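> @MW can you paste both from yesterday?
MW: sure, first one:
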Amino acid sequence: MAAATAGYAAVHGHPLEHPGPEAPTGPARWVLSLRLAVVAGIALVVLGAGIAVRSLLGSPGAPVAVPDRPVETLAVTGRDAPPGAVGDASSGAPSAGAAGAAGAADGVGARAGADAVGVVVVHVVGEVVVPGVVRLPTGSRVADALTAAGGTTGGADLTAVNLARVLVDGEQVVVPAPGQAAEAGAGPAGPAGPAGPAGNGDAGRGGSPALVDLNTADLAQLDALPGIGPVLAQRVLDWRDAHGRFTDVAELGEVSGIGPTLLGRLRPLVRV
């Protein structure tokens, strides 16, 4: 029996002795430890970054109350408002300067306002399709005013109108019919003879109206002349003040806005 057991053990090994599991080798353990270390390191970096960001941002502060302040609005009318034209913004009431400026508009002020914005305002009458007041850019000519008035009618006498003349703010452009121009300015007139005081309303001989004396007439008398508005009348007075007096009716042509056609219509109506 002992011999058989010894022979079996020699061939198959001892039945009670079995080799245990092989111990893991060194490199595999180090690889596993390195992976764990890398994962742990990444987790620490992410955690640290999150803490740093939270520290930088911090908690939102409490809202700060901003006191309400009334909004001041300054309303300016026109391109260049004069001093005092702006009202009191807190009360909404216009200042005294604004009220004064609103009530002080006259012919000269209207012309200055038109020049400031580059516009001339003229009155077109006579043989045009749509007579009336037209607004045109500064530098426009009589032809532009007639176009703005719808053009001329078939009965217009354009030979009596200087279509190339530059318009003056506040003037009146008259387009006559044939025959009307001859009546208004019938040829050149020589120096007029003595007449009664200008503007007294008395009729001269033959029922003709009294001539207007250019050296004594006031603004209203000059404004009443055909083709002369308040602006041109003021320019006549300004020319007279600058030169002392008129020595000839022809000197009216030196006043800005009075061309040859208008001068021809005025000759029979004025004197010096």
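MW: second:
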Amino acid sequence: MIQRVFRARFGAVRRYSIPNNSYKESFERAREPYRVRNAVTFVALSSLAISIYFYSINAVKQEDFSSVPMPEKVSKDESQK
């Protein structure tokens, strides 16, 4: 197992790819069942990430930060001292 991982990471031909990038119908048929599942997974994860993003933006818009104490403004006379 470790030798396979080592070979795959350091330049050996991976077993799930087609050598020389040639087109083979058998390769396409073998991957066919995974296309729909991969597309559904992509849509689900993308929608989750987008919904979290918009929820966060909406939550920050509603916050008025009134609980945060603000320092007093410094006048020009005091800042030049």
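> thanks! The chain has a mean pLDDT of 78.
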